Amino acid sequence: MSKLEFFQFPYVFDDNYGVLIHSPDTGETACIDCGVAETYQQALDEKGWKLSQIFVTHHHRDHTSGVLALKEATGAKVTGPDYLGANPIKGVDVRVKDGDVFQFAGHDVHVLYTPGHTMDLINYYIPSCGVIFVGDTLFAMGCGKAFEGTAPMIWESLKKLHALPPETMVYCSHEYTQENAGFAVTVDPDNEALKARVQEVDRLRAQDIPTVPFSLATELATNPFLRANDPSIRKHLGMENVPEVDVFSKIRELRG
Predict the structure, then answer these.
(1) 189-229 pLDDT, tens per residue?
(2) Three-state DSSP class for 7?
(3) Residue 62 bears catalytic tag
(4) Closest alpha carbon to 131 in 87, 176, 161
(5) Which residue out of 22, 58, 59, 107 is catalytically annotated?
(6) Is-catalytic flag, 107?
(7) Is 110 an active-site residue?
(8) Exactly one of 62, 120, 188, 230 is catalytic; which is it?
(9) I want to staple 66 with a disulfide (CB 3.0 to 4.6 A). Which of 24, 34, 38, 104 is the partner?
């Protein structure tokens, strides 16, 4: 069983990334979400891959607007969250929940339920390749807003990611990194790793180079939303002796 191949591409919604996952052994190809069917089809055509599966993370329109059209055009099977709520995702063939494991091209895909940003948000983790597709759960130096859940709920979701191997590569759905970096230094101003990362991000974006994917290890060192136990951040916020969830909630509140 060979490693999977990954192809990331931007599409017309502001700052969004799509990703294709391809098995050179079996020819199977999956995509993460689909906001614009035409752009995903262009990416498939560019690579010469035939789509077989669509993995949907959550119901927001920039992740789902093109799902039905792409499904109709390719015959791909759609996997999505089993949480339906007020905005069920149309076209889902297989609904999955936290702890489920399914196969893609001989690789186990683990489902992590990470509510908070939305109540249906799930992530797709492929241990054999050391990658996770998090949708809007985690961003480089940021995390999703609590549109439907609460800050404590997001913190519990992020703890699931925190527990993964630090070498895990994280694919998120937006290029928010420069903006997130600007906020991160306001709550973690003495972090030398963060200062160095901000400079590197500025260099990459000046050349229009993506900052996604990124390693979980990098986030653990520089993302304040994963560092609610850090003494320096706690001291800066005047929250040395409060629970981690309260520190996280304060950081999420300050980010807006």
Answers:
(1) 999 999 999 999 999 999 999 999 999 999 999 999 999 99
(2) strand
(3) yes
(4) 161
(5) 58
(6) no
(7) no
(8) 62
(9) 34
